[in-house]
Every structure is written in C-alpha cells, then in structure tokens.
C-alpha cells in the first residue's frame, strides 16, 4: 500500500466512523433460545415475536443488531454461547432464554460482566428476591405468577383435592410453590418429574390412584405434549388445570380435543382486548401463518420495551438506560404493564379456557383472577 | 394394589421396548463381535420413517411397516458401506466409526425433518384404555407394545432354534472361521443379521415414538440402557436379552415410582424426587454390577 492509497483508506475509515456516530449508538442484542428438540416451539415463538416487533418498528429498529443462537435446552451450551456473545461478539444485551435452569446458569454471570439481561420468559425466584440485579429485567412474569393464578382459581372454584406435578428444576419448584401459595385445599400428591421426560406412564398411574378432584400440572413444551397425549389415552378422567404454559398454542394442536374446556392461569391471551394486542396477533398471523403463543407475546413485548428504552437513552450510559427500561414506556400486548421494585412485572392475571374456533384449538379469557399482581419476593430485593 | 399392578405393567412395557433394542444389539455383538453405537440411530430412523409415512398416507400400519423396512435398509446399507470394514479391527475403532455414524444420522435427520419433534396419532382401533381383569384400566397401545415384544421374543427364539438361518447364526457365534470354511457366505449372513437387528430397533422406535415424540437424538438414552441389558443378559443370548430387558425395565420403573414416595416420608418432595430418581437410575447399574460379580459372562452368556 503506497502513501496515497493509505491516505484514501484512512479517509474512508474516518468517513465510516462518522457515519456510525451520526445515529444513536447501535445496540447489539444476543438472543440465546431453544430452537431444537422438545422445547423448540417455545424458542421459535420467542424469536419470531421479538423479530416481528423489530420489523413493525421499521426505521426505529435499524440500530438493533440481533444475533440468535440455539441453546438446545442445555445449560452448558447456553453458557458457552453467552461467553462467546459477551467476549467475541461484544453484545450489549442478552435475552431469549426459555428455561429457568439455563437462566440460572447464564444471567448472574452476564449481569456481573456488566451486560443487561431482559427475560422473555424464565424468571426464577432466586433472581427475584435477594438475587435481584439492576441490570436484570423480567419482562415476562415472575415464575410463581401463572401458578398463583391457577391456585387462586382452584380455590375460588372450590376444588377440594388436587394432585400437583411439575418438572424438577427451578421453574418447577417455583410452580408448585406458587400454586400452593394461593390454594388452600388438600394436596393429595406432590410429584416432580424429570426435565425433558417423555414417558408419563408412572405419573399417570399415580394420578389414577390419587382420588384427587383435579390435576394441576406444569409441563411446558414437548413434555406437555407427551403428557397430554398419554393422559388422553389412559382412560383417567380427572379434570386438568394448569398454568398457561401447559395449554399454550404450541401444545394445543398435539394435545387435541382432550384439552377442550381446560382452565389455565395466564398473563396474556390472544383475545385480550387492547390495540397493541390486536396489531400483534394480526401481524403474527400474517407474517408466520400460525397463531401466536404466550412466548411470542412476551418476545414481542421485550423487543418493544428495548426499543422504547433506546429512544430515551444510550446503552453506553448504563444508569440512564436502566432508568429508561424501568419506565416500561411501551404499549404492552398485555394492556397494563409496569415494573415493581425488583424489576419484575406488575400485571393482571386471567383464567383462560381452551376452546375450539372452527377447527383450531385455542384459549379464550374467562375472567381476571389477580389484578395488579406483583410477586412474593420483591420485598427481599435490595438494590 | 392396583397402583403397583399398573406400575408393574409399565415396567413390563418398558422392558419389552428395551428387549426390541437389545435383541439386535446382542445378535450383532455376539455373532460379529461388533460394538455398534449407531444402534440408537436405527431406532430413530424407524421412528421417523413411521411418523413420515403415517402422516403422508394417513395409515399408521403402513408407517409401522415402513419403520421396519427403512431401519432394515439403513442397517444393511451401513453394514455394507462401513461396518464390514470394522470386523477385524479392535473395539476402539468400532466405537469411533459407529459414533461417527450417530453424528451422520442425527445431522442427516435434522437436515431432512428439521429440529422440531414430530407427533404421531394412533389409529382409532388402538386408542383409549381397556379394563383388565381386576378392574385395572390400562392404555391399549401400551398393551400392544407388550404383546409385540412377546411375539418378537417367540419369533426370534423359533428362528434361532428351528431354522437354517438360526443354525448359521449360532454357528457364527461359536466359530466364525469354521463356518466360513464350511462354505457359508459369512458376509451375507452378517448383512442379514445386522439388518434384522436394525429392523427390530426401528420397530421399537416407531412404537415408542407413537406414544411419546419423534425427535433427533431420541435413540441415545435408550441405547445406553440397551447395552446394560445386553451385559446383564449375556452377550449373544436372545433369552438373556429378554430376561435382562425385563429386569432393567422393572427395576427402573418400580424404582422411580416407589422410591420418591418412600423418601418423601422424611424429606421434602423436591429432594425426595431428586434423590429417588437418582437412586432409581443407580439401581440399574447396581443390578448390573451384582450380576457381573456373580456371573461375569452375564445371566445367559456362553462366554466370559
């Protein structure tokens, strides 16, 4: 390279740098989510919801650079991806993890390295109380919430005896704790299953012999599909209740008519009546040709929260950016939405019923059960 | 009482599924002296073939037939292309090559079918539950798996003891140089045995995939237990594979079903489940260790 060429090169680089500085600072977002295996439906919906919000925002989202990687629902893979995204891709913010055991492996380390983390789904109790962090926001819920709503419903409906079951990982433990916090009837059995379990014959045998009036179960993704199929085959006819995860749009087609009429606690439903939700549901169906699930709704809200904060503050100024996030100044598909002191949502919870619209199984809101509901751990959060 | 009976049936069903896997593994191991890690991939091939054909044609039975054919064809193909070169090599080379086959099969399947699990619907004739004597309700399809396993066991026993192919297989196990010298086409025999084992694995995959889910990597967890079964039952013995599979199936299911309940009497449910499930998984290996100490060749093994 001769001197003249070197000069030209230098000018070109300087011009590029100026062009970059002209807009607001771009934000590099690392999304770690589950795109393969039994949990793939959840991660795909999270990603698609997030990307839909960016697409609908148009130019406002041009400063967002999104990297998406598949964690295969394995904590060790999630940690590897997070390390790579933080160290070599130099992302500003992480998001997207579906599963609480993966979140526990990634989030504390990411926030300790100064990265923001916006949770689209997993929000284990350990990160909501004493373990809360200024750089960690749960946009979804706190893990106990949906189950608390189901517990409140079971109490209100006067269900006498309940068999409760969840996978043995942080979200499963939060689930049963949340249900029991609001339900005061008799628990016949408290059963934990393995994460990723595909055969529920042994648990169904226990349900058959439990004498319970209802079965409360939390089995997200492929676990829920396998359980619903096998439950329908088993000849047991004890009614099911659960959190929205167990009867989410990704599970219903495989579960079939066995799910009809089932009640579930949720923070969102596709028939929730507000303009943001109408735009979201219609946009999602047009873009992807399927109905959105709860995970898609939460991914969509997370992207809109991020965009709202980017319009107010520069991510390089962490304190200002955090304050902008905490304002939650965006139109949530859930209607009312604000953050509590531990940066977890304060929102309404509903009971949904599984219905058939034409040939398609989906959920419809029956009634609100918990209004302006926060979580039980906020008081322990000191920051 | 009904609960224990139902859990015993669950253990029996699980054992029969393991038997279908272990039968092929033990034949290949016994006759050819080959450690085939890719046996789990053949299980997956069977499940995907069944799911694909059943969804495309709407006939579950055709899917089941397709699982047998696809797995047998895949088995014969890898025997001719890869496995054949490995008989004279040591076990480490075999493990490496067949492990590579697992990766090829997994990525190939992911490429063809995607990462999303497939779900099969059962034919109406096999759905629902039946009431057994004693008032126990049990899913019909799980009973069918038990019956299929039993029928395969009888069929294999007849084939080994009563047919010319069976005589050759037994002779191949005992002394492969000698039967080659006697004019038996040993490489064709090996291909047939390998394809037969593959077909059984494919059948197991299709049956289990029908009640659970069909996804990439579904075969590997089953493969480990199938190896345990083969070691307990004795290498090369069909009878050993059957008894071993039933022992492993019962131990695993009853352990997982009963231990957490027992432990929950003196600890909280979450820890009782964690410890109970770990203890139940350990029970299988403890069983294997005890069998190996008392009978190093396995329960029905011919050689040590």
UniProtKB/TrEMBL annotation, chain A:
Residues 26-358 form the Leucine-binding protein domain. The keyword Metal-binding does not apply. GO terms for biological process: amino acid transport. SUPFAM superfamilies: Periplasmic binding protein-like I. Keywords: Amino-acid transport, Signal, Transport. This is ABC transporter substrate-binding protein. Belongs to the leucine-binding protein family. It comes from the Bacteria. Residues 1-24 form the signal peptide. Pfam families: Peripla_BP_6.
